[in-house]
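Tokens as discussed.
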């Protein structure tokens, strides 16, 4: 599967080496395990004098947005990379901007944030892009999945998307409304437990009640899900988000946010 897409990545000079891309492709196609793929796609990085995983992170971001059905597998692969031994340089674990190469996914959060901001800005500049709302929803789903499994904590990004979606100036603009509401809904569909536990670290005792903003967000989603001028597809996502929110609120065992 995805042969042409992965070949296009191999032809892109801003992507990792073909053997690293092939390792990711083989994993996505269930030919190898996440652990084997983690070793194979990082082998060059582990041997570099100054390990730099940024091209690999770029590949993962592209896979998540362009091939959204693979997102859970990409999250699993990143979790496997976090378990790899960090490269040792000069007797110490190599760090990039203070972060360990693999166990802390050095520069991944910063690179993802740059990718997030760039995608958001480009899509907002081209509101007529038919794939715009879908792409933005996909990257939000990916960030929520990463947070849920605590590969990286992107709850700040989630709040940004949710508050954008419920901002009056966007709600009064049909295109912007679709753009932001679908993305915000994905934050709850894939990450309601983490958002319930705002203010808590993963693994901490779950909150007994919701973070104050949760109540405001839920009310806003309910209003938007009943509007006649909201597209049916967006309404369906909002209703799924509300179901996820209600499930966490009503079932204490679903409030537990444990480490990946």
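Sequence:
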């Amino acid at each position: 599967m995805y042969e042409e897409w992965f070949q296009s990545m191999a032809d892109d000079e801003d992507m990792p080496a073909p053997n690293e891309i092939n390792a990711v492709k083989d994993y996505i196609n269930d030919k190898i395990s996440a652990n084997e793929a983690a070793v194979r796609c990082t082998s060059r990085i582990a041997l570099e004098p100054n390990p730099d995983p940024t091209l690999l992170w770029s590949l993962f971001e592209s896979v998540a947005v362009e091939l959204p059905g693979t997102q859970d597998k990409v999250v699993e692969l990143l979790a496997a990379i976090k378990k790899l031994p960090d490269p040792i340089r000069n007797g110490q674990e190599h760090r990039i901007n203070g972060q360990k190469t693999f166990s802390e996914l050095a520069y991944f959060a910063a690179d993802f944030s740059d990718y997030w901001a760039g995608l958001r800005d480009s899509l907002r500049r081209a509101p007529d892009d038919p794939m715009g709302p879908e792409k933005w929803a996909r990257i939000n789903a990916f960030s929520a999945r990463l947070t849920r499994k605590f590969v990286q904590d992107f709850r700040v990004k989630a709040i940004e998307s949710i508050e954008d979606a419920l901002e009056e100036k966007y709600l009064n603009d049909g295109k912007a409304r679709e753009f932001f509401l679908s993305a915000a809904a994905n934050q709850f569909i894939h990450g309601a437990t983490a958002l319930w536990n705002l203010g808590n670290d993963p693994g901490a005792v779950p909150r007994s009640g919701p973070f104050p903003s949760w109540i405001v967000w839920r009310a806003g989603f309910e209003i938007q899900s009943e509007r006649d001028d909201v597209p049916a597809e967006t309404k369906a996502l909002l209703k799924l988000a509300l179901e996820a929110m209600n499930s966490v609120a009503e079932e204490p065992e679903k409030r537990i946010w444990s480490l990946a």
